[in-house]
């Protein structure tokens, strides 16, 4: 899998056109999936995908392959050229990115890179053992990813990263709990920790009670916070949604729309996240403030959206991987500022009376412009009484405006968790959110669902 | 999408047996429900058909080599079948598999929907409307959310229309509806006839770890449900 930049240059030499760009996305990874404490569906992947973009006479064409011999590269270059010839002129095409210097941010770990199938199975087994008698469901996965970009502008970018993720659902028919760990060093991902946490949470969920719909004060664990921020961002925090006026941020740049304790940025330059020096056009990543001290600051951009805006915006280094192209640029390294609470229990004290939410399920966007989301809680929903986490609840349907959830935030934890956001579709592109647990004064419950458990 | 989310996914037998619990979730159904569970009203007939002409889930055989077929999933409102693999069908002691699909060379086949249809009833759209004194006509789901057992759902629609005394009235914005799967399907009191039946497609049905996207089709005609909880902006 080594030599992705060499591969990109070899493909680039095969192109014929005014300009061309090649992106190589390569991975060597393994997943030990487990259910009912048995490892199943183990999957090992070794693959290099080469995507070629050719510009001819103002027309742009794409082609992709994972045939990486000389013949395969020649063919993909030819197909990209043919695609360009058959296209209409792209009057908005901003051109390929110029050469740039890239920071060395880390993100690669030899020990993680060396993990093989037996190691992934061993680490999954360690999680299963730590969960004890309750069934464990989830994955342990690790991988090495290379992303290289080369173009006829002289741009040449290459990064090799590692990542390890352990996701744990401890569950039986009447109980379920969730915990997870993510990092670019496997040393930061001890599978026994989330397995034990998930089992401990599950043990407290038996006999979940219903509550009346209404607006509650709530504590949201980092996994739930990350999911809300991610879904909020789809329409709101990327330039495409902003230009198409789907974004909650439209007309609100500079406005204090959230609690002053809320600051969210996209920060792939932070080694505490999963660091990345450049995007899928080879543009250097910038740290982008999205919400700063409660004030709406802006969205992330790639070259196409920046050109379309025609107002002086430049790319912030957020060109997405190919599979997300229709979304436009999006954050991939969410970072929410920490607060001062020492623990989630301290947040429960701030809430007083309310609910405690561990994890969310199947979010949907009800009103993009209003920032309204819906979804269910799962795997650890509790009542908070007298400032203490109390009896378990059934899964709850929530329908919330994010301006409410983040509009009054009594507290956030000092510690933040790196939450995995990679659902492992398409080529491996590890990305995550570094977020605290939060207390909110307004979390609207619109219905009740089934009890915890399988 | 209503068929997809509230009938397709919960009848996937791997979900019923828990192997998708951590990510996609499980199912409110259990193996013992086969042949007895009342899924909906007698108007509800759901068929899994991997032979449907022009269906996105049409094939000669699935990724285990099981030939394409047409099977009843719900008949007159009663659960009659599951979507299965050879392994899960053997575990259940019923069915023969035929729903195993992978989305590419680097993924393991999973139990997936093929083409899952709400079978037509009779009458036209106008005839369905004619029997609505005060209601809503909801068109095209644009957002969907359903719980991990596929029971509690909330869908948002692209557009909605008021129905008064059997006629379409003013347009309504941001219509949503919510319900609990077997309760909702129990309120189905009419499905329009074959002339109204249309095959729809979906190309991003997500499931599995690593994630896979399936291409599936759903055929349906206009359907009428009574006493559904809705929300709209005027």
Strand content of chain B: 35-45%
Rg of chain B over CA atoms, rounded to whole Å, is 18 Å
Main beta sheet strand tally, sense and closure of chain B: 4 strands, antiparallel
Lateral strand order in the biggest sheet of chain B: 3-2-1-6
The span between the termini of chain A is: 40 Å
Describe, in plain words, how this protein is organized in 3D.
The complex is a heterodimer of chains A (454) and B (234). Chain A is an alpha+beta fold and 454 residues long. In chain A, 21% of the residues lie in helices and 38% in strands. Chain A contains ten helices and 17 strands. In chain A, the strands form two sheets. A six-stranded antiparallel sheet of chain A has the order 3-2-1-4-5-6. In chain A, a hairpin with a 2-residue loop joins strand 9 and strand 10 (295-296). In chain A, helix 4 packs parallel to helix 5. Chain B has 234 residues and is mainly beta. Helix content of chain B is 13%, strand content 38%. Chain B has five helices and 14 strands. Chain B has helices at 2-8, 13-16, 86-92, 125-130, 181-186; strands at residues 46-49, 70-75, 78-79, 100-101, 110-111, 116-118, 134-146, 152-164, 167-180, 188-191, 198-207, 212-220, 223-225, 229-233. In chain B, the strands form five sheets. A four-stranded antiparallel sheet of chain B has the order 3-2-1-6, covered by helices on one side. Chain B is globular, with a radius of gyration of 18 Å. The mean pLDDT of chain B is 95.
